[in-house]
Design brief:
77% helix; five-stranded mixed β-sheet; mainly alpha
């Protein structure tokens, strides 16, 4: 009660300040609206209800602004959660109308977030095409204002929608896009959310190993942000993976971890759900007693929550458990309760769907009335236009002639542009061939020089050392000359080692013999530090054609050497991910970072890297912030043409 009174006093102050154009007060309104959205996500609709009503009173007293439109958006989301789709649609329209009156950045930002929230209603009711259309439009607005967080969120939802429509290609594209854009953000919660979603996509494609990697990365990001719910969700997903693989011991360990994190987060629904899943795994492991006790505890929690869905699922599990143990009467009772709850859930869903369809019908009816009025106006205007045409026939003829002439000119210009584009494409192909030829020539020359150094100069130095060593035994030297003689032999020995290292670096034999994974392992281990250089490889190791492997190896060389020279890092991490038709690299350090607008690559290092990667149609992205290290990402999305046929 005191909290509500305190909030009312704050809103009263904000009303006065916001109406006077006070910027800090406007920011407070935005934060209050965002806090209300967070309450709804956590299921606290009672607290959200009081805040929504107070915010709407404030909205009626302030001029058009981002804060006012944001309040309408939050109110629409609240009424959507309450199944009142007519009011939800009305407030969404007010939010769009307010956005249309704002300056560019605020207009695009408010449109984007409103479209994103609005799409959820269509998503929940199976109107996936409409939801996709609204998410694509929201994504467009987010890109206009360079909002990486918004792009990641909308891409994440688009990935889920396309997965439901079984469009795996688009689902993969948007899930990867969500993950890559979340990495550009400092929001670890967003990163964890996108990693979880990417893992769900991979799991749907039966790529369980890669899905597990994504879920574990999601846990790392969520641990950094301290978001206990996201940690619980990731452990929950890992447990589901192990259950599907029938690794029930691992599944039990993971769901217990999910349950503990759910308790820490305080989310009662997640606490009950993870306890139910724990009982289910125990049932799969034939531990009937512990399974029964756990499921009954979960049933009590679900009853207190008033969750029909959870109660139905728990009764389903108890039915099978008691039937397996010969308790058929009890199993029959549980089955009846399961059926009653199933009917109740269907009834609730039907009510939601009817409310949704009524709101859609009312909206379409209003649109039809508007269209009829427009048609009447158009008919009246048509009569006026016909009269005007008769009066100005000559003028129109002249105008049409001019338009026709200009159209011919535009067609000619378009044909010229098309020809120029074809010429440009041919020039790009020519440049690509030239780059590949240059790189091939460079590697050939490196190989020749390395061979000459190793076989020629290396052999000569070894011979000189041997001759001097033999002379040392047959000559009488005083103590000073003997010491100088020994130093000369040691210097020649060091020169031979350095020469062999240079020759190996120019053309590493292990790359040609053992492949990319072994070559990168040897390369990273060749540095004794500091800094510490760590190398990780994921996926199935495979061999590629010589040119492709050399390109990837040289790129890693260049990135690591530049990090050693300039970053002052304590740690450099190199990651290689190999999938059946895709290869990705990640090189990051925890050094001082740099301004992305000013390259810290010496000479033509960065352009050489881009040329090498571009010659194999790869993608390259490097990001950094001063004081926070740097990260380079390289991906080749179609490596099938370069796989070596063994």
């Amino acid at each position: 009660m005191r909290a509500n009174l305190f909030f009312a006093i704050i809103l009263a102050c904000l009303t006065f300040n916001a109406s006077a154009g006070n910027l800090p007060a406007t920011q407070q309104l935005i934060k209050s609206a965002d806090s209300c959205m967070q309450m709804m996500r956590q299921g606290d609709t009672a607290a959200a209800s009081a805040i929504v009503l107070r915010l709407l009173k404030v909205a009626d007293q302030i001029p058009d602004s981002y804060a006012r439109g944001n309040i309408f958006r939050v109110a629409a989301s609240y009424y959507g959660e309450k199944w009142n789709y007519e009011k939800a649609g009305s407030f969404y329209n007010k939010a769009y109308e307010t956005a249309s009156k704002l300056p560019h950045d605020d207009r695009e930002k408010l449109k984007a977030i409103t479209l994103f929230n609005h799409s959820l209603i269509f998503y929940q009711h199976g109107d996936y095409q409409q939801a996709i259309s609204m998410c694509l439009e929201a994504n467009h607005y987010y890109q206009m204002v360079n909002d990486n967080n918004g792009i990641a969120e909308t891409s994440n939802r688009l990935g889920g929608l396309y997965l439901l429509l079984l469009d795996n290609e688009k689902a993969a594209f948007y899930n990867r896009k969500a993950y890559l854009y979340s990495l550009k953000s400092d929001d670890k919660n967003l990163q964890s959310l996108c990693l979880n979603a990417y893992g769900n996509y991979l799991l749907a494609q039966e790529n369980t190993d890669s899905a597990l990697i994504m879920y574990k990365k999601a846990i790392e990001s969520a641990l950094e942000s301290g978001n206990k719910k996201l940690i619980a969700d990731a452990y929950y997903n890992i447990s589901f993976c192990y259950s599907g693989l029938e690794k029930f011991e691992e599944a039990l360990s993971m769901i217990k971890s999910a349950h503990q994190w759910a308790i820490k987060s305080g989310n009662q629904y997640d606490i009950c759900d993870t306890r139910y899943k724990t009982g289910l795994v125990l049932y799969y492991m034939n531990n009937s007693g512990p399974a029964r006790d756990t499921l009954l505890k979960a049933l009590n929690e679900a009853s207190q929550l008033g969750s029909s869905m959870l109660q139905r699922n728990i009764y389903d599990a108890l039915t099978y458990l008691e039937a397996d143990n010969g308790n058929y009467k009890l199993a029959w009772d549980y089955l009846n309760k399961y059926i009653d709850l199933q009917i109740l859930i269907f009834s609730e869903e039907d009510q939601k769907q009817v409310s949704y369809l009524n709101a859609r019908y009312d909206a379409e009816k209003r649109e039809a009335d508007i269209l009829r009025q427009k048609a009447m106006i158009q008919r009246r205007n048509f009569i006026l236009i016909v009269a005007g045409i008769m009066l100005f026939a000559l003028a129109i003829t002249i105008i049409l002639s001019i338009i026709l002439q200009r159209r011919k000119q535009r067609i000619a210009q378009q044909e010229l542009v098309i020809r120029q584009q074809k010429i440009t494409e041919l020039e790009k192909e020519k440049e690509l061939v030239a780059v590949q030829s240059t790189l091939k020539g460079e590697e050939t020359e490196r190989s020749r020089i390395a061979r000459d150094l190793h076989d020629g100069l290396g052999g000569m130095l070894s011979g000189v050392k041997l001759s001097l060593t033999n002379m040392n035994g047959s000559q009488i030297l005083d103590e000073d000359n003997a010491r100088l003689f020994e130093q000369a032999i040691n210097l020649i020995d060091s020169s031979v080692k350095e020469l062999r290292w240079v020759a190996h670096n120019m053309m590493p034999e292990i790359l040609l013999k053992e492949g990319l994974n072994e070559a990168l392992t040897t390369f990273c281990r060749s540095f004794s530090g500091p800094p510490e250089i760590r190398y990780h490889a994921f996926g199935e190791s495979m061999r590629f054609e010589k040119g492709f492997e050399l390109t990837v190896y040289r790129v890693v060389q260049e990135l690591v050497n530049n990090a050693l020279k300039h970053s002052a890092a304590g740690e450099i991490v190199v990651e290689l991910i190999q999938e059946p038709e895709r290869l990705s690299l990640n090189v990051r350090d925890n050094g001082k970072g740099f301004d992305p607008g000013i390259s810290y690559f010496s000479g033509h290092g960065l352009s050489n890297i881009r040329s090498r990667i571009g010659s194999y149609s790869g993608l390259f992205d490097i990001s950094s912030r001063e004081g926070l290290g740097s990260e380079a990402m390289i991906s080749f999305n179609d490596t099938k043409p370069y796989v070596r046929n063994n």
